[in-house]
Write a structure and sequence with these properties.
Helix content is about 40%, strand content about 10%. It is mainly alpha-helical. The chain has a domain of about 90 residues. The protein is globular. Belongs to the peptidase S28 family.
C-alpha cells in the first residue's frame, strides 16, 4: 500500500517489507503513535462494509494484489471485470442481485469521462497513493477551472489535514494553490454579482 517509488527503490528484502508501512503511515498515523496496523480489524462503525458494497456494485476498482509473499492482501491478480463471488456471499442476505446490481461501468456510463459543464473544482491526490490511478487526472493539470494537483510523496487527504511542522514542501505548495484557486473563484463570483447589481 506504500509508494510505488519506495517499493521500486528498495534494495533489500527488509526495505521492500518496510515500504508499505511507510505508505500506510502517511495516511493512518498522523500522530506518529501507531507502531503497527490491524489490516482486518473492521470495527470502525462498519465503515468498511459501505466501501465493499460499493466495490461490489458500481465502484469497481481496476487494480489487484499479488498476494503473499508479495503483499499482505489476498491474491486478486490479474484484475478482470468478472463478477466476484465473494460479493454474493457477503451481501446475499440483504438482497444483493448480481444481474441487476453489478455494474462495473456505471460511473462512466452515468457521468462520462469528461465534464464540459463542470467548473471550480480542485481534485487533489498524491503520487504515493494506492488510489492515484482512480482519480480524475494523475498529473498536475487543469481543464478550464477544474484542477488536478498531485502531492509528491503524499496520499489523498494529506492536503486537507491540519498543518504540521513536518509537512513536505509539496503539500504546502498544493495547499497554497488550492487557496489561490478558491480565492480567485470567490473574487470572480463577487465581481459578477456586483456587475449584475449595477446593471439593474
Amino acid at each position: 500500500m506504500g509508494s510505488a517509488k519506495t517499493q521500486a527503490s528498495a534494495k533489500t528484502q527488509e526495505q521492500l517489507a518496510i515500504a508499505p508501512f511507510i505508505g500506510m503511515n502517511i495516511l493512518y498515523n498522523t500522530t506518529g503513535e501507531e507502531k503497527d496496523f490491524q489490516l482486518w480489524n473492521f470495527t470502525d462503525d462498519g465503515k468498511i462494509y459501505g466501501w465493499t458494497f460499493l466495490e461490489a456494485t458500481q465502484l469497481v476498482f481496476a487494480f489487484c494484489s499479488r498476494g503473499p509473499p508479495f503483499d499482505p492482501f489476498n491474491k486478486t491478480c490479474p484484475f478482470n471485470e468478472t463478477f466476484d463471488a465473494s460479493s454474493y456471499d457477503s451481501y446475499n442476505s440483504i438482497g444483493y442481485n448480481k444481474d441487476s446490481m453489478y455494474r462495473p461501468h456505471w460511473l462512466m456510463n452515468e457521468y462520462g469521462y469528461e465534464y464540459p459543464t463542470a467548473s471550480n473544482i480542485v481534485f487533489s491526490n498524491g503520487d504515493a497513493d494506492l488510489w492515484l490511478d482512480g482519480g480524475w487526472r494523475n498529473i498536475n493539470t487543469n481543464i478550464g477551472s477544474i484542477y488536478s494537483l498531485i502531492v509528491k510523496d503524499g496520499t489523498h487527504g494529506y492536503d486537507i489535514r491540519e498543518a504540521n511542522p513536518l509537512d513536505t514542501q509539496s503539500v504546502k505548495d498544493v495547499r497554497n494553490q488550492e487557496k489561490q484557486h478558491i480565492r480567485n473563484w470567490i473574487h470572480q463570483a463577487k465581481f459578477a454579482t456586483n456587475l449584475s447589481e449595477e446593471t439593474k
